[in-house]
Amino acid sequence: MLVYFEDARRFYEEALKEFEEGVRRGDPYRVRDAAEKAWNAVVQATNALLLKLAGKLPSSHWERRRMLRELEAKMPEVGALMLRDRYGARERHLHEMVFYEGVVDVEDIRYELGKVRAYLDDVGKLLGVGT
């Protein structure tokens, strides 16, 4: 389980580096790749959480959303964090809008990277590990 969370941390750190480098160089492709790495950090953190709390590794984004919904219904501390909504928002903004559609708004992406950090922090607390 922790290997997934370690992957999440690493993808997030790499996303930050790639984002700053892409902005500095004016390279929209590097910025788009950074957004995809940040999205993968969310996916890996979610995998770690679901493996620990549900005992299963999801096989798709749909299954992750379903499992998060079920956890939110069973566990008030998970429900209060609204992880399913946050997962879906990062998917839309980072994966779909930035990476696939090429919408490169630097300040919006910077904002989204902060949201990823908050997601990792919250998942880390649920897992009992620091970020």
Largest sheet geometry: none
Number of helical elements: 6
> Mean pLDDT score, rounded?
96
Oligomer: single chain
| Total beta strands | 0
Class by SSE composition:
mainly alpha
Question: Per CATH, which architecture?
Answer: Up-down Bundle
Instruction: List the domain count as a whole number.
Output: 1
Unreliable spans: none
The proportion of strand residues reads under 5%
Describe this protein with a few key phrases.
mainly alpha; Four Helix Bundle (Hemerythrin (Met), subunit A); 0% strand; 131 residues; 83% helix
Would you spell out the secondary-structure blueprint of this structure?
Blueprint: H1 2-25, H2 28-54, H3 61-74, H4 76-79, H5 83-100, H6 106-127
What does this structure look like?
- The protein has about 130 residues and is mainly α.
- It has one domain (about 1-125): Nucleotidyltransferases  domain 2 (Four Helix Bundle (Hemerythrin (Met), subunit A), Up-down Bundle).
- It contains six helices and no strands.
- α2 (about 30-55) packs antiparallel against α5 and α2 runs parallel beside α6.
- The radius of gyration is 14 Å and the shape is elongated.
Please sum up the structure shown:
The chain is 83% helix and 0% strand.
